[in-house]
């Protein structure tokens, strides 16, 4: 008797169990992500605004899956943790395009099918988007990592000089944007260096200045937490801020402004490209074309996550005067002339810079 | 014969759970341990065994500092939570009429039914300069200038204590209500005052409740990333934050694994210290 | 309770601590009705603007659905596996029970972050794509020990006697489980499922590390926090709070209400 009972007893729960697992697998597996008409994009958070994405989804009857990240290091780590074919569209820091191209991640773009000539001259950056005469990405948005502030709490004239932020006047009132590249570049400007002067030799100087800055800082935060600190009054100044941090908040706090200091500013730029491993390159290209169209550009420029200048100058025709005022549209030429691009170190220096940044956070 | 098939049956029943735990817990831990002695060089993984990551942990000041910060915060939180929770648990068990106790406990748990991420964020709104506390103090004239508690270790500790006071209140309360009243009565009959009764009778008998709660607090607190990340203002990073930096900014899995192994060692030590109170008993 | 100093002190202390416990939630809910974009004083509502924004946010609603799905299925799997293991070990006490118990409860003594790291590296190493399924697997890892421990502790000897009686009367093992053991243990099963569901519903770090596009609610809230400060976060938090609150009350009425009626009729 016992033998018969035992086999039945074991197999019955097992089949219940496997049924449960099976149901689970089917239920979980059939979730979105497998259908043919979907596009997977790895983006900065400004691309997640439904006002930007929905018109494209409706026009082509597709779904755009978005994964947001901050910082190229993070993006590369996500790509590395993925399988080939997982991703279709990549939005990446302009200056990091060569690094990404070298890793073989991006596919060549048909230059003739994109409005490259409408892009502001100084932001075309063909030296980074083109390798051996082939175009791998196109600039879509840019802006500045400079100084954002609340004019009811600080003297706007002070904001034109970086050294006041290292002084005692605004101690404990400064928020620092948590992105090591532009912040170290700004620190270099404060020290009278160019961002490209950062090296293993000058790094100790940068580190010392950063640590002084930390003593003045109320907090160090990513896009939202630093913007929040500025908007809620937690901080009066956001070092590394700019139109991207201020534009979206001005409706609710008209006291927020930004300025490019006399020492110069750091130019941020985003480029968009298509993954080499993508199995939907045509649809991905259509998405890039949409983002680069004047309408797409206007929506991207005023995205609910952060604002920025549209790379395509034609976007100015479809943007309101108020939007352009907030972006300081008319001053772009002067700003661009005084700005430096993100300095991109080699892998070894990059590692050292990240270590310094972690130490900076840890203080 | 019958005994043998019984045993086989029992193993059969336990097998799915054991296999699941082995496949998705023990094996991953082993793989992680293996990764921790590999190394990330540039963009690739070097699979030659090395202690480089552990050496880096000791040599790079921000890692050791992270461990130290974590231990400080965790001990502070655990002790503060016990000190705050014990009186509340005692009031609930002794002073509140029995039929209201369940309602009171339910009310204590209620705020934790909102999402855990949101809870940390709402503390940010409460503590920030221009936030609720600062505003209240200014309007009542208690302070002239706005104050900020957010973005600091204090904020992290407040966020943690908020959750763990509730947790410890529950475990200590559960212990207190099981306490036979006759023990206390006996102590008093023998001439012990309230303080001596508490120290020699009540406290030892509620120690299991305290230790279970303290261990839970320790483990949950030292491994938490969200609370310090939202409330800590990126200052004085805790160990989980340094670990996440390795994953998110560098994709340095070997280094992250080494940190995780160290974290696990710390938790294991805590477990060993509390283990005699954590036995799984059958009713 | 008499008005003695000790009692007054007790009331004050309890009030202060309850105030501390409730403070952030009250603030959260209040500023979910904020009109402007910045959820700090002065309060300029009430407005339902951010609730409208939340319901219009398709990613948020998808995440809500994903959370429900993952929590339900992972809790069911945890409960099933936990029940079987507890039954096998508590009833038949095979040799090595102690060691198996140790293995089964081990995940409880490790931080979620470590479990998440292990799974991330393993899935990555083996090239298993991350999805809701991988989140679910992780949640079973954390909830299985919980379900096992609860059920194992509830399997007392008097129940074993009843089961033995059923077996002696010719019931098969399946019948014993389904018709005898399960009904006797249903409150414990219920509690275990409920707890597992809650932990899965609110779990963040595993869901963050082993997910890709399909994320659960806590991860989506985290994304939202990182992509724009506004009272929509408050609205989502308040909404989750409301759902849980109703859930707990209903549950309380069903479970404890029945017991109360029983207790009274027994008198």
UniProtKB/TrEMBL annotation, chain A:
<keyword id="KW-0574">Periplasm</keyword>
<dbReference type="GO" id="GO:0042597">
    <property type="term" value="C:periplasmic space"/>
</dbReference>
<protein>
    <submittedName>
        <fullName>Extracellular solute-binding protein</fullName>
    </submittedName>
</protein>
<dbReference type="Pfam" id="PF13416">
    <property type="entry name" value="SBP_bac_8"/>
</dbReference>
<keyword id="KW-0813">Transport</keyword>
<dbReference type="GO" id="GO:0019808">
    <property type="term" value="F:polyamine binding"/>
</dbReference>
<dbReference type="GO" id="GO:0015846">
    <property type="term" value="P:polyamine transport"/>
</dbReference>
<keyword id="KW-0732">Signal</keyword>
<dbReference type="InterPro" id="IPR006059">
    <property type="entry name" value="SBP"/>
</dbReference>
<dbReference type="InterPro" id="IPR001188">
    <property type="entry name" value="Sperm_putr-bd"/>
</dbReference>
UniProtKB/TrEMBL annotation, chain B:
<comment type="similarity">
    <text>Belongs to the binding-protein-dependent transport system permease family. CysTW subfamily.</text>
</comment>
<dbReference type="GO" id="GO:0005886">
    <property type="term" value="C:plasma membrane"/>
</dbReference>
<keyword id="KW-0472">Membrane</keyword>
<dbReference type="InterPro" id="IPR000515">
    <property type="entry name" value="MetI-like"/>
</dbReference>
<keyword id="KW-1003">Cell membrane</keyword>
<feature type="transmembrane region" description="Helical">
    <location>
        <begin position="73"/>
        <end position="93"/>
    </location>
</feature>
<feature type="transmembrane region" description="Helical">
    <location>
        <begin position="12"/>
        <end position="38"/>
    </location>
</feature>
<keyword id="KW-0813">Transport</keyword>
<keyword id="KW-1133">Transmembrane helix</keyword>
<dbReference type="Pfam" id="PF00528">
    <property type="entry name" value="BPD_transp_1"/>
</dbReference>
<keyword id="KW-0812">Transmembrane</keyword>
<feature type="transmembrane region" description="Helical">
    <location>
        <begin position="157"/>
        <end position="177"/>
    </location>
</feature>
<dbReference type="GO" id="GO:0055085">
    <property type="term" value="P:transmembrane transport"/>
</dbReference>
<protein>
    <submittedName>
        <fullName>ABC transporter permease</fullName>
    </submittedName>
</protein>
<feature type="transmembrane region" description="Helical">
    <location>
        <begin position="105"/>
        <end position="126"/>
    </location>
</feature>
UniProtKB/TrEMBL annotation, chain C:
<feature type="transmembrane region" description="Helical">
    <location>
        <begin position="12"/>
        <end position="33"/>
    </location>
</feature>
<keyword id="KW-1133">Transmembrane helix</keyword>
<feature type="transmembrane region" description="Helical">
    <location>
        <begin position="102"/>
        <end position="126"/>
    </location>
</feature>
<feature type="transmembrane region" description="Helical">
    <location>
        <begin position="235"/>
        <end position="257"/>
    </location>
</feature>
<dbReference type="InterPro" id="IPR051789">
    <property type="entry name" value="Bact_Polyamine_Transport"/>
</dbReference>
<protein>
    <submittedName>
        <fullName>ABC transporter permease</fullName>
    </submittedName>
</protein>
<keyword id="KW-1003">Cell membrane</keyword>
<keyword id="KW-0813">Transport</keyword>
<feature type="transmembrane region" description="Helical">
    <location>
        <begin position="174"/>
        <end position="199"/>
    </location>
</feature>
<dbReference type="InterPro" id="IPR035906">
    <property type="entry name" value="MetI-like_sf"/>
</dbReference>
<keyword id="KW-0812">Transmembrane</keyword>
<feature type="domain" description="ABC transmembrane type-1">
    <location>
        <begin position="64"/>
        <end position="251"/>
    </location>
</feature>
<dbReference type="GO" id="GO:0055085">
    <property type="term" value="P:transmembrane transport"/>
</dbReference>
<comment type="similarity">
    <text>Belongs to the binding-protein-dependent transport system permease family. CysTW subfamily.</text>
</comment>
<dbReference type="InterPro" id="IPR000515">
    <property type="entry name" value="MetI-like"/>
</dbReference>
